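Fig. S4 source data, part A: sequence.
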Amino acid sequence: MATNVSIVLQMSDGTVSYLRNDVTLNSLTEIKTDNSGILNIAGGLSAGQALQGKTVVAAGAKVVTDDATTGCFGHAAFYDAQGSIVCIIQGGGNTDSGLPMLMKPVRLSTGVTVKALAQAGETSTLKIGSMAVYCASGKSDIFFGTGVDATAVSMVNKDGNTIGESLTGQRVVKVYATYPTTNGVAQIGVVDGIGAFYVEDAAGQLKFMAFPALGRDSQGMVPLQAANFVVNQNDTLTITANT
């Protein structure tokens, strides 16, 4: 079964646009303007190319699998021409709805793209956990790691950097977290798994925890969670799953 991601963009001038592409599960995929020919838009273009000069103020991503409800939202964001994350985008699965306001407006120009990660929701298979982060300075980043049974796994960004390496000195104020297994990150007992993603300092002291959403069947986009911690260089973000 094929899976696609739809993204609605709402601009500051009141206009809207629609991005949609089939995606490869478990892999970050660029989502371009809808190429179905149904809508009066130029299809198959990167967001920045199609909508140059527009400023996006709200956006939402939706993951749909053909004739099924297994598609789960992992994460999505705007990326600049150098491949850096400009701003995170909220999303959800087949039954989710809504068009969340962005944490900051994003002005589109050539080279700006929108990318998303989708996965198949399953009962017990270990999956990729994601935590998207927004800082008081306006900086965004996304950290992810594949769960390993009864093992602590460091979550890193697209460049392989930990939260401490990427965001030293930044104050995190909002996050969203996803993990697409029906029974959660730590689904068996209370011995060898932790049911939330967790940030620790160099001495192992907890600084923050985030419960991940399934990214499907919540009736609304994966919500932003409030945060308030300053990142230090040796801080780590960890997923410890069990099956």
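Fig. S4 source data, part B ends here. The longest strand covers residues 55-65.
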